[in-house]
Specification:
The chain is an alpha+beta fold. It has 8 helices and 8 strands, in the order H-E-H-E-E-H-E-E-E-E-E-H-H-H-H-H.
Length: about 270
C-alpha cells in the first residue's frame, strides 16, 4: 500500500462517516487550522470535511532528514461535529481499514490539552495524541474555544501524519520532497536574517489589522498564517526570553481571534 493509497483509503472511510473530501490545502505552517477549517467550524451549521494538507515546519530544521520529524509533512485533517461520536473507536476502525494487524501493535492514546497561550490561533482544545509502536501518527482533538468564541456543540478534529503512518504501515514514501525540505532547512539555519524576519512579522501584523479594519477577514487570516511561519523562523535565531517569544505568539493569537470575531459578526449582521 503506497502513501497515496493510505490517504485515499482514509478519505473513503471518513466519507462513509459523513465527512466529504474537499480540495487540498497548503503549504501551511504547523500548529494552525486551514482557512477552510478555521472559518468552517465557526459557521452556524455543523461543518464536516476531510482535507489533505501540506504542513511546513522550519523549526524542525536542526533535525535534518529525520523521517519522523519531516520539515514538510502531508497530513489528513478530518473535522466533524457529532457529539455522539467516539473518536477513539472511529480512529481504530480507520486503522483497521488500512489492513493493520491491530492486536499485534502497541496503540496508545496519550491525553493532551492546551490553551490559547500555547496556540497561535487562540484555540482551547483537549484530546489525545495517537502512538503506534511509540511513533506518533496523529491526534484527536475536541475544539472547545476559538478566540472569544465557545463552541456548542464542540467540533472534533482527527489528524493523521501520513508520513509517520506510512512508516508504521511499513512502506517507504517515494514522494517525500527531500530536496525542498533540505533547502527550507538550509535557508532557515543559514540564510534567514532575524532582523528582516522580525520586520516582515511587523508588516504582516500591520496588514492583518488593516484588512480587519476594512472588514476583510479572509485576507486577514492569510496574514495570520504568514505570521505563524515567520515566527517559527524567527524563533530559531531568537535569543530573547521565552516571555518575549510567548508575547509575539500571543499577538498572532489576538489577530486570529479578530478574524474569528469579525467572521461571526458578519454572519450575524
Amino acid at each position: 500500500m503506497a502513501l497515496q493509497e493510505i490517504a485515499l483509503c482514509l478519505q473513503d472511510f471518513w466519507k462513509e462517516e459523513g465527512c466529504p473530501t474537499i480540495s487540498p490545502c497548503g503549504p501551511i505552517p504547523a500548529g494552525v487550522l486551514t482557512p477552510d477549517v478555521f472559518f468552517g467550524v465557526l459557521a452556524p451549521r455543523p461543518w464536516c470535511a476531510s482535507q489533505m494538507v501540506s504542513v511546513v515546519d522550519p523549526s524542525l530544521a536542526p533535525y535534518g532528514d529525520d523521517p519522523l520529524s519531516p520539515i514538510i509533512d502531508r497530513h489528513l485533517q478530518v473535522t466533524r461535529c457529532d457529539p455522539s461520536s467516539d473518536l477513539r473507536a472511529r480512529f481504530i476502525e480507520s486503522l483497521r481499514m488500512l489492513g493493520l494487524d491491530l492486536p499485534s501493535r502497541d496503540i496508545r492514546f496519550v491525553a493532551h490539552n492546551y490553551g490559547w497561550k500555547q496556540s497561535y490561533l487562540a484555540v482551547r482544545a483537549a484530546g489525545w495524541r495517537v502512538l503506534i509502536d511509540q511513533i506518533e501518527v496523529g491526534s484527536l482533538s475536541y475544539l472547545q474555544r476559538l478566540g472569544e468564541i465557545d463552541f456548542e456543540p464542540v467540533p472534533m478534529m482527527v489528524e493523521y501524519s501520513l508520513g509517520r503512518l506510512a512508516i508504521s504501515v511499513g512502506i517507504e514514501d517515494e514522494d517525500v520532497p527531500t530536496e525542498r525540505g533540505r533547502q527550507i532547512a538550509a535557508y532557515a539555519l543559514e540564510c534567514a536574517d532575524p532582523e528582516r524576519i522580525n520586520s516582515l512579522l511587523s508588516l504582516h501584523a500591520d496588514e492583518c489589522e488593516q484588512a480587519l479594519a476594512g472588514g476583510f477577514y479572509f485576507p486577514a487570516y492569510e496574514h495570520v498564517l504568514a505570521s505563524v511561519y515567520l515566527h517559527s523562523l524567527f524563533a530559531l535565531h531568537d535569543s530573547s526570553s521565552d516571555e518575549g517569544q510567548s508575547g509575539r505568539a500571543a499577538h498572532i493569537a489576538d489577530l486570529a481571534s479578530g478574524c474569528a470575531r469579525m467572521y461571526v459578526e458578519a454572519l450575524d449582521a
